[in-house]
Design brief:
The protein is mainly alpha-helical. The protein contains twelve helices and five strands. It has helices spanning about 1-5, 10, 20-30, 45-55, 60-80, 85-100, 115-135, 150-160, 185-200, 205-230, 235-240, 240-260, and strands spanning about 35, 105, 110-115, 165, 170. It has a three-stranded antiparallel beta sheet, covered by helices on one side. Strands 4-5 form a two-stranded antiparallel sheet. The longest helix is centred in the C-terminal third of the chain and has 25 residues, at about 205-230. It is globular and about 55 Å long. About 40% of the residues are buried.
Length: about 260
């Protein structure tokens, strides 16, 4: 038992999400895009946008629906048992699949891969798996009432209400139960983080790790949809749950870890 405790010691420590870990994630995030045919580097935003607007994972409607059902069931069971391991195991599995298949697509440049997005999301998903399997994660006695404010944002991300009209992303309730939210990292992450904050807010390292990466993606999307492609401002609005919940997760996990070190 002692050996197993040492095995996961690195994952128990808050230093697992220290600046070294964050620097590694940042470097991975900016790995160059891989395409079959060359592209003008000035068009990098458009290339990335083309991949994310039509990734391989979006190709089959039934997969999107099944993914929504699985996410809803995982959240419900997690809430009933108040056990953060349930949502972490879900995220480890779904996160790996989404990391691979959301970041690949057939584009005008041939088969295109976003290795930066893929690598960062995979690292965090694997980290969540180790954290979920380690000893010492206890079930919560009650829902954390201080985090209840995240629930509307979680629902908004889960529904992802939009449609494309004349090439522009606009608000719409059409397809909220069949769209790609449950196979899209930026919609899954705020739901998972919200559940952890509600029922497992003691899992500080993993909350901080997920929040840090989610916050990076939120900032990139804010810049993309409110600055570079402001005509699609509604997609920026759809990413606000990611921004707000990840920012809160980083702050709350850092503050509480500081309190623990001081013995409060």
């Amino acid at each position: 038992m002692k050996g197993q405790s040492h095995k996961f010691a690195a994952f128990d420590s808050f230093w697992a999400v220290s600046w070294h870990f964050k620097l590694l994630l940042l470097l991975l995030l900016f790995l160059p895009v891989i395409t079959e045919r060359p592209y003008n580097h000035e068009d990098i935003v458009a290339v990335i946008g083309e991949v994310l607007s039509n990734p391989l994972v979006n190709g089959v409607v039934s997969i999107r629906v099944i993914a929504k059902i699985i996410l809803a069931v995982a959240c419900t069971v997690c809430l009933i048992y108040k056990d953060g391991r349930i949502i972490l195991l879900y995220y480890a599995a779904a996160g790996c699949a989404v990391a691979i298949f959301q970041n690949m697509a057939q584009t005008q440049y041939g088969f295109t891969i976003l290795p930066g997005n893929m690598a960062v999301q995979l690292v965090v998903a694997v980290y969540c798996l180790f954290f979920a399997l380690k000893d010492g994660i206890t079930r919560a006695n009650a829902v954390n009432r201080n985090a209840v404010w995240v629930v509307p944002l979680m629902i908004f991300a889960f529904l992802m209400p939009y449609q494309i009209r004349d090439g522009i992303i606009v608000p719409s309730l059409r397809g909220v139960f069949t769209n790609e939210s449950a196979v899209t990292y930026c919609m899954i992450a705020p739901v998972v983080l919200g559940m952890l904050l509600l029922v497992s807010n003691h899992a500080l390292p993993v909350i901080h790790a997920i929040s840090f990466v989610a916050f990076l993606f939120a900032l990139l999307n804010m810049m993309t949809h409110f600055v570079f492609a402001s005509h699609n401002w509604w997609m920026g609005v759809l990413h606000l749950p990611l921004l707000f919940i990840s920012a809160y997760g980083m702050v709350i996990s850092r503050n509480r870890q500081g309190d623990r070190r001081r013995g409060n």
